[in-house]
Amino acid sequence: VAAPATSRVIAVELNGEQVELEVPARRLLVHFLRDDLGLTGTHIGCDTGNCGACTVHLNGEPVKSCMLLAVQADGARVTTVEGLAPDGELTPLQTSFNEHHALQCGYCTPGMLMSASALLERNPRPSEEDVRLALQGNICRCTGYVNIVEAVLATGGSR
Amino acid sequence: VLLREVEYARPATVEEAVSLLAGYDGARALAGGQTLLNVMKARAAAPDVLVDLADLDDLRTIGFTADGLLEVGAMVTYTQLVGSSEVEVARPILAEVAETIADVQVRNRGTVGGNVCVADPTNHLPPLLVALDARFTIRGQESERTVSADEFFLGVYLTAVGEGELLTKVAVPPSSGAGDGFSGLTVGKHGTYVANAAATVSDAGVRVVLGCVDAVPVRATALEERLAAGDLSEDAVRAAAEGLGETLDPPSDAHGSGEFRRHLAEVSAVRAVLQAASRRKG
Predict the structure, then answer these.
(1) Cβ-defined contact of A67 to B33 (cutoff 8 Å)
(2) What is the reported pTM?
(3) ipTM > 0.95, yes or no
(4) B38 at A interface, C-beta within 8 A
(5) The three-state (H, E, C) secondary structure of A28-82, written as one string
(6) pLDDT in tens, B155-175
(7) Which of B1, B8, B82 to mutate to test the interface with A (most CBs of A within 10 A)?
């Protein structure tokens, strides 16, 4: 049995690239991404698991990276907002956000994109109810939800 | 947020997990972490060692025991419950309730074992599992034991899982024609419950369990006895539930006064029983 330790070398497939780094056990995944790796697209809104701004994909599923220790991601595949368009060309979802004015201050946008892209991955033509439920864990403090929902629906071809 | 320094271990087997939990002072099991990490941020809990159960694949399965019980591993997530054909066939209320817990991200990480071991009086699964007469399998270093739902929940944040022990499985009987219901009032859609009730109606009678009104789920035994006569019409259920609130002494907090919770408990109980009765087969 591996004895408990205050740090651990973790191996993560991050946005398609293999990353191996020693991290303190107490470090949240969101801090690992932002501070250790400089991937500041993942935002910290509330730090209490309520707002969803820090949403990333863990093995393809949306999770809140402030509700996960970096060591818990050891061995996992992690995708951040930077990984949606690795070559700089916007995805249809991102283009749709642009076209539908689905962002105001933009703070919640990375989390919205990660939740919405996970939805479209498993349900390419979601209904409005599907979209709203999928975005339930993401708060937009500008309250710009209507356009966000429109943007996701348009990407799914339902509008 | 910078957490207090903590040690981390990720055992590969249940045996290793139990030996770590028993062998280190201040060791605590880490399941999905959707509650534990938040209470660690708030310094409301300060474990010295986190024993991450992530690699215990044995605890991630949903299946049936030899005697036909639906058996759910402690590390099964809410999302897994929602998508499980076994749950859909045997006891769909589990998926129905799991689908209303928080949001997608939390459901992807949060686990059945975490929900019940946290034993927060406002959690969804404790009253439901008492209503369904669930059995909990607890592993210690020397032995394994099974406790009933009535014996599992001991207090606020306190369960029958002792130090150096690990909850491994939760088993519920299949519906076999029983109807199940769940009702309550949340703060916002799919938010924290202010009060809730779970009910099941079967050949064995009616079980009604209230959440959020005491440290542990409360069986509404007087109501159950009044409903045993068999009339589950709306008028009869309302009449039987009258006065239920007065028997309770729920807490007051930011989400509602004790008086409001007494009222909600009664209303929730009626709705849960009527829903369960409407779903009963045969």
Answers:
(1) yes
(2) 0.96
(3) yes
(4) yes
(5) EHHHHHHHHCCCCCCCCCCCCCCCCCCEEEECCEEEEHHHCEHHHHCCCEEECHH
(6) 999 999 999 999 999 999 999
(7) B8
